[in-house]
Design goal:
- By secondary structure, the protein is of the alpha+beta class.
- The protein contains 6 helices and 7 strands; from the N terminus they run H-H-E-E-E-E-E-E-E-H-H-H-H.
- Strand 3 and strand 4 form a beta hairpin.
Length: 185
């Protein structure tokens, strides 16, 4: 599943996936003692196994995830997605039938999402991969915390000066339909 989610991420968001790979590789090179969830298989830094059998979520945003990134969610279990465990994307006003075995990539830090409750007799679990926003900040700060950056007046000034263009640079990681189509032509 980790490999499939990573491959889907690479296919649908190649620029964003490349950024995740750079951040993931930098993190592992700088802190080699940290465990890797799926070595050589996935560029996501974190994983959640939700295996309770009656797994559903209240409306939420994963505000600590990278706001310019995606998380991958795979639904597992035995349930009828037309009546149970549907994916709700609040700002988009969508309720999506999300069957067992399906994977979705969403910007979980900025889109409020949830699931409808699991119907009696049904079983739903999920497997999720994501990356926390502070990891990206740490890498973009030269593998330094903001506190460490403040101790370097020149580095701090450069970071502050770059904040105006940072948002636009991050948005450039999202692929357009034309870019994706060009990859298959």
């Amino acid at each position: 599943m980790a490999a499939y989610q990573n491959a889907a991420f690479s296919l649908w968001a190649p620029h964003l996936h490349a950024e995740y790979k750079t951040v993931h590789d930098t993190l592992r090179n700088q802190l080699p003692h940290l465990p890797v969830n799926f070595p050589g298989v996935s560029e996501f830094c974190a994983t959640a196994f939700n295996l309770g059998g009656n797994v559903w979520t209240f409306k939420h945003r994963d505000f600590r995830n990278w706001p310019f990134g995606w998380c991958a969610i795979t639904a597992l279990g035995e349930f009828d997605p037309s009546r149970s465990a549907q994916l709700v994307l609040s700002e988009l006003k969508l309720v999506v039938d999300f069957p067992p075995g399906a994977t979705v990539l969403i910007p979980s830090a900025v889109i409020t999402h949830s699931n409808t409750p699991v119907a009696e007799g049904d079983s739903r679990m999920s497997f999720t991969q994501y990356s926390a926003g502070p990891i990206f900040h740490w890498v973009k700060n030269g593998c330094r915390t903001e506190k460490e950056m403040q101790e370097d007046p020149k580095g701090w000034a450069e970071m502050e000066a770059g904040k105006d263009s940072f948002y636009t640079q991050c948005l450039e990681n999202f692929s357009t339909i034309d870019e994706l189509l060009a990859l298959i032509e």
